[in-house]
Design a protein that fits this description.
The structure is a homodimer.
Chain A: H1 18-37, H2 46-55, E1 59-60, H3 61-68, H4 72-84, E2 88-92, E3 100-104, H5 106-110, H6 112-126, H7 132-148
Antiparallel strand pairs in A: 1-3, 2-3
Helix pairs in contact in A: 1-6, 3-4
The first copy, chain A, binds a DNA duplex through helix 1 and helix 4.
Chain lengths: ~160, ~160
Amino acid sequence: MLFMARKAPMTFDKHRSAGYLINHLARIFARNLSDRIQPLGLSTGTFPAMLALWEQDGRTQKELVALLDIEQATMANTLARMERDKLILRKRDAQDGRVQRIWLTERARALQAPATGAADAVNAAALAGLSASERDTFLALMGKLIAANTDTDPPDDPTPG
Amino acid sequence: MLFMARKAPMTFDKHRSAGYLINHLARIFARNLSDRIQPLGLSTGTFPAMLALWEQDGRTQKELVALLDIEQATMANTLARMERDKLILRKRDAQDGRVQRIWLTERARALQAPATGAADAVNAAALAGLSASERDTFLALMGKLIAANTDTDPPDDPTPG
DNA sequence: TATTATTGCATAGCATGCTATTCATGGCTA
DNA sequence: TAGCCATGAATAGCATGCTATGCAATAATA
């Protein structure tokens, strides 16, 4: 026969691979969050930007890029969708014509409570099977990993000579 | 002045939100894996499918969908790219003309060792800041969360009457 | 057997992420 | 001041995820 299924020797266990598990878990969380915030007119990609803007708006795109650890092009596209959906306004900075400052619409401000409530509910439901100390451990470990895997070096290190 | 930055009362701490942290961590891992397997001609989306097929090929699309917890349409697109890139062949099942069985090319088989090695390296580097017991705890907690948040109900529950 | 329902997969359309590139503005310097 | 470099943002093109829908093959049923 032309084709015969082959089993290669097991050299990689996806259930022991952090990257594999994190990817799977992230998709599960994203699906759950999407289900809960779509009725509000929000989506998973806009949500982190909304959090940053609810905390304080008038930020520049560059500031959001740094805060959210997302590429500039990704942020530009996300902001374009948010503007299209009347969540934000972009106004040129008076001092520097290259800069656009991002302002929430009243509609967007009104979404803060229901949207963060939805996210809290998603987190609570997903973590329901863990004890309080397991939850703390899990959050702490993720924070530690993010910190350890994020460049905090100044983007500019001349050391000329 | 027309616009005045507002700070809303803090009601949501992203550093304590499992979903937020998982999303961030997943992007970090994906970027790191992409850097390492792109030279091999692989990408993050094809990687889980390759793992399943290295373990055993001749599987159907439907089997891969169930194994990887991905939507059928997503898998169809991923398989189309893999076929385009000469990683797989699709052959109609002789018994059921609707079914396509997926077979690895020799080129794809040859990638198993370098690709899983790359993934191991990514995981090891990312987790380098954790102790062995912290790593075990982290993997165990993720496994627990995935299990708790995955439907294992039979897709069909008639109970008619 | 003719009709209908189910099943497996493909396609359309969109959101979200990336890299590479372009564009416009501002700053520096010869 | 003119020309060059730096910076902020937009655009192009692609991968990867989703939902909704279409299509072809098979199964079930009237």
